[in-house]
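name: query_chain
kind: protein
chains: 1
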Amino acid sequence: QVHLVESGGGLVQAGGSLRLSCAASGGTFSRYAMGWFRQAPGKEREFVAAISWSGGSTYYTDSVKVRFTISRDNAKNTVYLQMNSLKPEDTAVYYCAAGVGVASGEISARRTWYSYWGQGTQVTVSS
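structure:
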């Protein structure tokens, strides 16, 4: 069983930055692909970014490219999402997710590809 705990959310003004963290326990973190998703009120959960086992492969949804960076520290069992130049439309609950049993370079934007999810952390961007 993999347990994921997100942190780092909060209230920030437009143009500001936040860094989200997702700490994992259980299993072998270095063998998990990791993803970040978000869900705004009244909307479906959507893909934000993903990273492969080693961090060698990353993928972003178009709306966050250049502004957001996903990274991981396998020694700390943690994945990060650095969010810069935040916009009000980035307001959402952000979730991290783990894809297990996948090949080393694999990543995905599909929710169903991920086996474990955290509880989420709220990010609110004021205009």
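note: The two ends are 40 Å apart (CA to CA).
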